[in-house]
Amino acid sequence: MKILVVNPGSTSTKMAVFENETAIFKKKIMHDVSDLSEFPHVTDQFKFRKELILKELQRQNISFQFDAVIGRGGLVKPICGGVYVINTAMRYDTIHATRTHACNLGCLIAAELASNIPNCKAFIADPGVVDELDDIARVSGSPLLPRISIFHALNQKAIARRFAKEHHAKYEDLDLVICHLGGGISVGAHKKGKVVDVNNALDGEGPFSPERAGTLPAGQLVDLCFSGRYSREDLKKRISGQAGLAAHLGTTDVAEIMCRIQKGDQKAKLVLDAMIYNVAKTIGASATVFYGKFDAILFTGGIAYSDYVIDELKKRVEFLAPIYVYPGEDEMEALASNALGALTGELPIIEYK
Ligand SMILES: Nc1ncnc2c1ncn2[C@@H]1O[C@H](COP(=O)(O)OP(=O)(O)O)[C@@H](O)[C@H]1O
Ligand SMILES: CCCC(=O)OP(=O)(O)O
């Protein structure tokens, strides 16, 4: 089976071609801020990113013949984890999604590419809106604002399965706290294969991150909204996109921040340490989901390459459970194996409604 994988992110478009389980081509196409800034909305980048993928396939002499195209899923309605066939309802909800994130393009590009190939299926798997929250985790202090699940579902589940395999266990038998340290940061409590609690890593919950504000003081936020100083769009960007490390330090690049710290930049150190402190507190809170007894804490995402960040986090949370570090992500492999499982019948194909 030949599978094309499409994974649009905020600063890159990742693509890969798999023959069954084997990646025969993988590429991360980086986008300058200036490349993307000409598009008012993320969905306006559809043609630009689709054509980059097609050009890359041509450049590699890879024939445009696939059994399936699978994309990173978008921010549609809350759904269970698994592989979904892309249908009209999913495309409609992705185009009209109220939340903006590059992942919305994954579904749209996969559907468009597959529609031009005879007998080719279009899928997404484990999108950011996977919702397996326990009822108790949904209740916030205001009935107007229930808690919701938006997180790095694809990578968290892929890393959980990798850890389970390495430890000759089943994901469904384990209790894990998994922390994805990326542009956004999510901390998920995985109870026997279900993410029963997790912060909304996209717009305003949990630790702050390279580009997200995380939980903010609510009263001050309301005052800011009505101050007349900011538009709705400005404030949204100050929660997601131009927040966190970007707002404090003007960069989301942790390696660059480490260089500043090494040169004696005290502000850079304070802000990075504050991010680490907030991540550790969220992990501590997640430990209470399991009454303090669980199998492991797993760190993943790009920032997990940073020894400084991981060492500081370990100091704060290693008393809770054994720690394992999986830098980067397994998203491309996870998407490919979901598509393969769907094509071979090993995995059920879910219909989005
Ligand atoms: N080698 C590295 N050392 C430190 N930080 C890194 C390294 N590689 C990537 N990062 C950081 O990881 C973050 C991006 O993580 P990534 O998992 O790629 O993002 P996303 O989850 O948004 O797809 C950025 O803040 C980047 O600076
Ligand atoms: C869509 C929610 C997951 C998320 O925050 O992803 P990034 O860190 O890749 O922006």
SSE topology sketch:
Blueprint: E1 2-8, E2 12-19, E3 22-30, H1 33-37, H2 46-59, E4 68-72, E5 83-85, H3 88-95, H4 104-115, E6 121-125, H5 135-138, H6 153-166, E7 175-181, E8 185-191, E9 194-198, H7 218-225, H8 232-239, H9 244-249, H10 254-262, H11 266-287, E10 296-301, H12 307-317, E11 323-327, H13 331-344, E12 349-351
Parallel strand pairs: 1-4, 4-6, 5-12, 7-10, 10-11
Antiparallel strand pairs: 1-2, 2-3, 5-6, 7-8, 8-9
Helix pairs in contact: 2-4, 3-4, 10-11, 11-12
The protein binds adenosine-5'-diphosphate and ligand LANB7ZPL.
The site of adenosine-5'-diphosphate (ADP) has 14 residues, from helix 10.
Give the structure's gist in a few sentences.
InterPro entries: Aliphatic_acid_kin_short-chain, Aliphatic_acid_kinase_CS, ATPase_NBD, Butyrate_kin. The chain is of the alpha/beta class and 353 residues long. It is 38% helix and 20% strand.
